[in-house]
């Protein structure tokens, strides 16, 4: 997936890779780039695995070592996305609520806008227009529910495992998919998060003084 930011998590820096790891990473990136280029040119369903392998100059066996299913070729930065998702909550501006921070993250990373670069817009259109990719991508996002719920609990002063944190995490990750069917997805996402904001604020008032 094309990245919308090059920032790393605060206070972190990637460990240097050895030659073998660099070669594997380069091969993986070449496969992902070839796949996305072909998908954007001709459509996801019109491109076969062998064509992608040939375009990346690798065998199909090598391709499947890096990407076990075809859908995974489009979503190749899952760990990085989780890092940015959690950072959106941990590093939000003072006074910004958790639902508001998650809304901004959803709008900037999962939906194209008028000022999005052409590559990201093309990618989001590809996913939105391909049922198999929509479902696979959403399932990948929902895998972050537990990690996000833990950070929400830490930031709000609630107990680990609090069902309210899990619910907020789940619905925050689910909202962008529900918005794709609307004429104005960005407006739909904003309205969905308005609902989450009101519910979370009411909970915070009942639970007492915690960071919102």
Keywords:
mainly alpha, globular, 212 residues
Task: Please provide a written account of the structure.
With 212 residues, the protein is an all-alpha fold. Helix content is 66%, strand content 0%. The protein has ten helices and no strands. It has helices at 19-42, 49-56, 60-66, 78-90, 98-109, 118-128, 131-142, 145-156, 163-179, 185-207. Helix 5 (98-109) runs antiparallel to helix 10. Residues 4-12 have low confidence and may be disordered.
Please identify the structural class as seen in this structure: mainly alpha
Series of secondary-structure elements, N-terminal to C-terminal: HHHHHHHHHH
Distance between the termini: 31 Å
By DSSP, the count of extended strands is 0
pLDDT averaged over residues: 85
Q: What multimeric state do the chains show?
A: single chain
Which consecutive residue ranges, at least 5 long each, have pLDDT under 50?
A: 4-12
Largest sheet: none
**What is the approximate shape?**
globular
**SS field, number of helical segments:** 10
Alpha carbon gyration radius: 19 Å
How large is the share of residues in beta strands?
Answer: under 5%
Helical residue percent band: 55-70%
Layout of strands and helices, then pairs:
Elements: H1 19-42, H2 49-56, H3 60-66, H4 78-90, H5 98-109, H6 118-128, H7 131-142, H8 145-156, H9 163-179, H10 185-207
Helix pairs in contact: 1-2, 4-5, 4-8, 5-9, 5-10, 7-9, 8-9, 9-10
Concise description?
The protein is mostly helical. It has ten helices and no strands.
């Amino acid at each position: 997936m094309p990245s919308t930011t090059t920032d790393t998590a605060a206070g972190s820096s990637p460990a240097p890779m050895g030659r073998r790891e660099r070669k594997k990473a380069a091969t993986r990136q070449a496969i992902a780039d070839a796949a996305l280029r072909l998908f954007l040119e001709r459509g996801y369903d019109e491109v076969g695995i062998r064509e992608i392998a040939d375009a990346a100059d690798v065998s199909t066996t090598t391709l499947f070592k890096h990407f076990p299913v075809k859908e995974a070729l489009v979503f190749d930065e899952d760990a990085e996305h989780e890092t940015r998702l959690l950072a959106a909550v941990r590093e939000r501006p003072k006074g910004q609520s958790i639902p508001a921070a998650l809304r901004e993250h959803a709008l900037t990373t999962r939906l194209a806008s008028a000022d999005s670069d052409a590559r990201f817009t093309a990618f989001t259109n590809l996913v939105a227009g391909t049922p198999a990719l929509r479902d696979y991508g959403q399932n990948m996002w929902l895998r972050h529910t537990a990690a996000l719920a833990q950070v929400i609990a830490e930031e709000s002063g609630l107990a680990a495992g609090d069902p309210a944190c899990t619910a907020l995490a789940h619905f925050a990750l689910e909202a962008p998919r529900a918005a794709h069917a609307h004429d104005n997805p960005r407006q739909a996402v904003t309205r969905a998060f308005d609902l989450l904001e009101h519910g979370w604020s009411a909970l915070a008032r009942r639970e007492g003084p915690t960071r919102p």
